[in-house]
Amino acid sequence: MYITSMSNNIIREVLSLHNKKFRDEKDLFIVEGKKQTEEIEHDWQICYFVATKEFENKIQNNGKIYYVSDSVFKKISTTVTPQGIMAIVKKKNFDIDKITNKQNGLFVILDCLQDPGNLGTIIRSSAAFGVDGIFISKNSIDVFSDKVVRSTTGAIFKVPIITECNILEIVKILKNKNITVYSLDLKAKKYISQIKFNMSAAIIIGNEAKGIEKSIIEKSDEKIKIKMTKNIESLNASVACSIALYEISKQKNL
Amino acid sequence: MYITSMSNNIIREVLSLHNKKFRDEKDLFIVEGKKQTEEIEHDWQICYFVATKEFENKIQNNGKIYYVSDSVFKKISTTVTPQGIMAIVKKKNFDIDKITNKQNGLFVILDCLQDPGNLGTIIRSSAAFGVDGIFISKNSIDVFSDKVVRSTTGAIFKVPIITECNILEIVKILKNKNITVYSLDLKAKKYISQIKFNMSAAIIIGNEAKGIEKSIIEKSDEKIKIKMTKNIESLNASVACSIALYEISKQKNL
């Protein structure tokens, strides 16, 4: 099938997936680019590919592939220089209970994170430091938006991510399972390097401008911060989270 | 003076500064936004402000302030929701010799960094971890572009930055001053946590996709990498740099 019209049903579905409302409704999202589509792990379901003729006989897939004209692809792409390939992928549901049952687990909780690059980078660092689950609050940016998916560079397929979370609820669940919950907070008195992380741990990262919501900090077990040479500065949210994960994973693997 | 025309000379100068060529020629750059302009340190020279009437009598400055109409400001702004204020700031020249003479100095060398957010974040982390100087290669993204300036959140005024560097030349200068130069490289055998950083150190960060150029790695003293739980992953360049700076600054302050 070769599509040249923007009114084709498949093209209309792809266009709708640029919108969170339809991603939620259909439980699908877009993965665009050659390298990115190759990084989709086998336990994720690719519903179909949309590609230009250039990719004919070059896509390994048992499912459907729709070929489209260059001009159609350009219109459904969100990149400046489209490579001519995208996959429409089914979202995955993760079982909170199963994820949090892990022995010596490491978890990340994101409260109202707003920048797509920061969210993507946190997912990437989480994959690198062996995080067992990421919980994202309702009011955060959508993890399935094109910018976030792109900046995870494939890591979105490697860490269980639970979205639309009520963070107070999540903190309660984790604490009930003896997972220590730390708030990364500039106003903390203890440095992260002073903590002995010898069991299951979760760290909460807050909004880029406002930090973690007060009611959530109060429910966490401890406030921690990163030692800086000049304490007047603050770090980028994804950097702060990554340093915390580095420090914890280092201690765990001593 | 109240400007309503886009053909006004000041407005034309501001517009030209969105372009690296003219920023280089005039040695000026733009700092836009209320918080950002407030973060300009006193040892930087603000040539003039451009603002909407809203800011009348609200700007503390001995120099010139040009007031412009909302519609003119919108056209010279690079933000989605302009706040109505920008400063035109003179670039600063730093003396490499003076900077590198510092006892127990910590330096960052950037080879062909391309993403504005990454560069901004590295400058921000450098300020937080007490870096004494950042050297940026000729083929890197311009540090004075609006996106980079914005993502430093004021840190651009707190760390000496030397641009348009020949990195091989810089490595030579640093080594001559007994500063140990480390390449942050995924193929390294030594972990950064195994290194004893007890004297002056510099770390090189490479391009987001290709890493550090081979000839530069060869001239550095040692290759180091960050320990990850899953070694197949790589980290975002600004995250990798920040973790390295965190680790070094932690060791230095023990």
Give an overview in words.
The structure is a homodimer of 254-residue chains. Chain A has 254 residues and is of the alpha/beta class. The first copy, chain A, contains ten helices and twelve strands. Chain A has helices at 9-16, 20-26, 34-38, 70-76, 96-100, 116-128, 146-151, 167-176, 214-219, 237-252, and strands at residues 2-3, 28-32, 46-52, 64-68, 85-90, 106-110, 133-137, 161-165, 180-184, 190-191, 201-205, 222-225. In chain A, the strands form two sheets. The first copy, chain A, has a seven-stranded parallel beta sheet, sandwiched between helices. In chain A, strands 1-4-3-5-2 form a five-stranded mixed beta sheet. The model of chain A has no long low-confidence stretch (mean pLDDT 94). At the A-B interface, α6 and α10 of A face α6 and α10 of B.
Brief summary of the model shown:
Chain A has helices at 9-16, 20-26, 34-38, 70-76, 96-100, 116-128, 146-151, 167-176, 214-219, 237-252; strands at residues 2-3, 28-32, 46-52, 64-68, 85-90, 106-110, 133-137, 161-165, 180-184, 190-191, 201-205, 222-225.
Oligomeric state: homodimer
Terminal Cα separation of chain A, in Å?
A: 56 Å
Tally of helical segments of chain A: 10
Order of the strands making up the biggest sheet of chain A: 8-7-6-11-9-12-10
How much is the radius of gyration of chain A in Å? Answer: 20 Å
What structural class should be given to the helix and strand makeup of chain A?
A: alpha/beta
